[in-house]
Amino acid sequence: MSEDPTLISHDPGTGLWLLSTPHTSYVLRVDETGAPRHVAWGPRLTPAEAKGLATPLPGPTDSFEGTTGVGEELPVDGGTRYGPPSLQVRYADGSRAFAWRPEHHRIHRPEPGTHDLELTFRDRVHPLRVVLHYRVREDSDVIERRVTVRNDGDTPVRLLRADSAAWTLPALPGYRLSHVTGRWSAESRLHREPLPHGETVLTSRRGSTSHHANPWLMLDDGDTTEDRGRVWSAALAWSGTWRITAQHTHDGRAGFTGGAGHDGTALPLRPGEEFVSPVFSGLFSEGGFGGAGHAWHEHIRRHVLPHGDETAPVLYNSWEATGFDVDEAGQKALAARAARLGVELYVLDDGWFGGRRSDRAGLGDWTPSPDRFPDGLGPLAAEVRRLGMRFGLWVEPEMVNPDSDLYRAHPDWVLHIPGRDRTELRNQLVLNLARPDVAEFTYGWLDRLVTEYRLDFLKWDMNRAFSEAGWPGEEDGHDLLWTRYTHHLYDILDRLRARHPGLRVESCSGGGGRVDLGILARTDEVWTSDNTDAMDRITIQHGFGQIYPPRVMGAWVTDVPNQLTGRSVPSRFRFHVAMAGLLAVGGDLHTWSEREMEEAAALVAEYKAVRHLVQRGTLHRLAGPGSEETTVVQYAAPDGGETVLLLWRCVPRHGTPRRPVRLRGLAAGARYRDTRTGAVHHGAVLEGYGLDVELPPGDWASALVHLVLEP
């Protein structure tokens, strides 16, 4: 096998390609028929070791078997393939199928530490080109894959399916699937269950990532724990509709394929056009679910987020304090109270624009209400900055109320199908961002708003799914809009950030309805859920953190009884739960007593002392939710120099034993001092035998323990 100074090597004799990351290897080969075949994905191999794997795959054992697709790099439609196709094409003559003919390959380095492989193929009958893209990095075990499909002919074709990648697992005694499901205000519910035989489909048909599923999955052999065992995982970087299909075959193999789009859509590809899929990244880890999470978190901070190493500020949001009852005097008074808590970013939520007095009107008219802000937002922004805070604003650029000047002027700008009802959800319709004129209008008013008020932050919301998803007057518009809408969304965000480099953006979609690697490449944090109940949030945040890092996880402290659950939880417990991510405050500060204000200010200061660990440290889930015991998370500095524990016990059950908590990620031979009590502990004891943390008696007990190296 020829050596290359990159992390990619090739053996022309066997057609074998070896892609290497710091701890793993991925091996594929172009076989005798010209088709790309999977060989291995697991622990790191040398080129000589990889060459020993280059054995032909067995063929069908009888006339009823054929190919399931597991074992192919990109299963296509055609021949004796009977599994879910990753690539399915319909040509102008109505025929389908794709037969691989290799053309050439390319290895290059687009940036330092990054190594790309491109394998180019053509169909043996039609002038259709397919490029398989692979990217590996010197500091990450994540492998990024995507596909380009180009129509080189003079007649149109339709892509019935064009997934980004297919991934194959080794033969194992059994397979277990990890993924999340949910709904509005109950997102990120983690499930770990045996992978059924046949096909398991995870998908969103709603126009966005959705609250109901998220485009990632993990597979293991059923014996993996938080700290031990092998995990194969993947996450899709796409914020529109998507589909991932996991397959467990009759002969005991497993794999999965995924990409943009959902069933029932067909993307037209005109002569000379090409489709570039979103990235579908994969990761193999031998460190259990925790090790996989560590690798994903580090990769997202380094290679996905625009400012992953930046310290996120403590934020205040006005929504739960005021609802739609917004005016300049009230906001200035709230800002003064927020500044007393140590808040660093003040965000004015809904109700500041047009005729917005409820969710029934005004959406789309993005100018300050003259009766509420007679001089615009300038005086409020100036006061917020005088108080030492940055200024941010809530917007919902993709939506419109029928009762708005924008809709009255442009009723054709929304998604609709002639002759069909225009279904309203939350009294609003979806603007067709796939249209170039709508996208340009949206960018224009956002740019003017950010420029005029020198906005530091946008809370970008999206509060309903697609319906009547049509684009009348545009050829193939009903199929084109699903991908073009997302591309224009990305383009608007990219242009805004390029023009305003100091702007930071939060992705919100009624809470966690748009969370994925695609939107995270263009935003700085996400609103995890509209449910701010501290007890529910422990479970939501547990599922969220399987892939996504605490650095992006927005977490608010709001008033009690909670608006959704009616549950009352002490302030200290609510703060400690929110400290597990990006701490923010969302309560009505006018109603907080002086004692509550003082306690909150002390808790904000406590968070600021450890947020570098929460936002950039290594997360260890020492005891997850659902057990009768205390839930514990730990954040450790990469060098083991300090660590912080957050502990939550909701409702104790009498007789449940208290067990010491064994820590992770400490420096060998070091001693650690508890910054609160002054007690000194040996790191070896903390890791080997544990730390005994006594929580206050009763319901809703919590604690923060900060340990630093003792000289």
Automatic annotation (TrEMBL):
InterPro entries: Aldolase_TIM, Alpga-gal_N_sf, Alpha-glycosidase_related, GH, Glyco_hydro_27/36_CS, Glyco_hydro_36, Glyco_hydro_36_C, Glyco_hydro_36_N. Residues 34-266 form the Glycosyl hydrolase family 36 N-terminal domain. Residues 631-707 form the Glycosyl hydrolase family 36 C-terminal domain. Keywords: Glycosidase, Hydrolase. It catalyses: Hydrolysis of terminal, non-reducing alpha-D-galactose residues in alpha-D-galactosides, including galactose oligosaccharides, galactomannans and galactolipids. Its EC number is 3.2.1.22. Belongs to the glycosyl hydrolase. This is Alpha-galactosidase.
